[in-house]
Design goal:
Elements lengths: L1 E2 L8 H6 L4 E4 L3 H13 L6 E4 L3 H19 L6 E4 L32 E9 L7 H9 L9 E9 L2 E9 L2 H4 L39
Parallel strand pairs: 1-2, 1-4, 2-3, 4-5
Antiparallel strand pairs: 5-7, 6-7
């Protein structure tokens, strides 16, 4: 599991406790320090590795290289990318287009699995940017199959604003497509993120009773 905006580890640490191998990243140096402390306190250092990088850089380098390694070890490897930064995460999905463009030969020919993205975002009434699925297509630079996207309601954050999770596979054609020239900012705002009440069969629900919070 790759946790792009890990914070202090509300997803990464419980996942490590359940036996998942996790690469967890956060740009905020304060969050990163507490992530390291929580990894140590919860004794998951053998399962969870922390990084202090920009989200796009993390995906382009660490995630890309590790995915290739996972496929070489197991062509059917289960690969999950968590993007839990509702206010900004959807703006980072452009990094997936062309992620393996030009390096297709590095990926094992017998690869059978595709990465699954768990994208958290806001769905707000009368949002001038459009509905979440339209924004996803626009940001990722690809027409995604609407029938293959799982939309999950997380919670209401305001009378006309919901937090949702979009779960979808990244098509191999998208991952190897030519990159588009787009003007995007790699600056991630430092946000204080509270734990989300999320239930998922793959991504475990954070449980404060089972974790030590510094």
């Amino acid at each position: 599991m790759y946790d792009v905006f890990a914070g202090i580890g509300p997803f990464a640490v419980p996942a490590g406790k359940r036996g998942c191998t996790v690469l967890a990243n956060d740009l905020n140096p304060v969050s990163y320090d507490y992530l390291l402390k929580n990894i140590t306190l919860n004794k998951v250092g053998n399962r969870v590795t922390a990084y202090n990088l920009d989200g796009r850089d993390f995906i382009r380098t660490v995630v890309k290289d590790n995915m290739i390694l996972q496929w070489k070890c197991n062509p059917n490897a289960s690969i999950h990318i968590v993007m839990n930064l509702p206010a900004l995460a959807e703006e980072f999905v452009d990094v997936f287009r062309g992620l393996f463009h030009g390096s297709e030969s590095d990926v094992p020919a017998d690869r059978n699995s595709l990465p699954t993205v768990h994208l958290y975002c806001f769905d707000k009434t009368d949002d001038p940017r459009g509905v979440p699925l339209d924004r996803l297509d626009r940001n990722i630079g690809w027409k995604m199959d609407r029938h293959a996207i799982d939309r999950h309601f997380v919670r209401q954050v305001a009378p006309s604003k919901d937090m949702i999770r979009l779960r979808f596979l990244l098509p191999w054609e998208l991952l190897t497509a030519a990159r588009e020239e787009t003007l995007v900012s790699s600056t991630e705002s430092i946000l204080i993120r509270e734990e989300k009440d999320i239930s998922d069969s793959v991504i475990p629900e954070p449980d404060s009773k089972r974790r030590k919070i510094v």
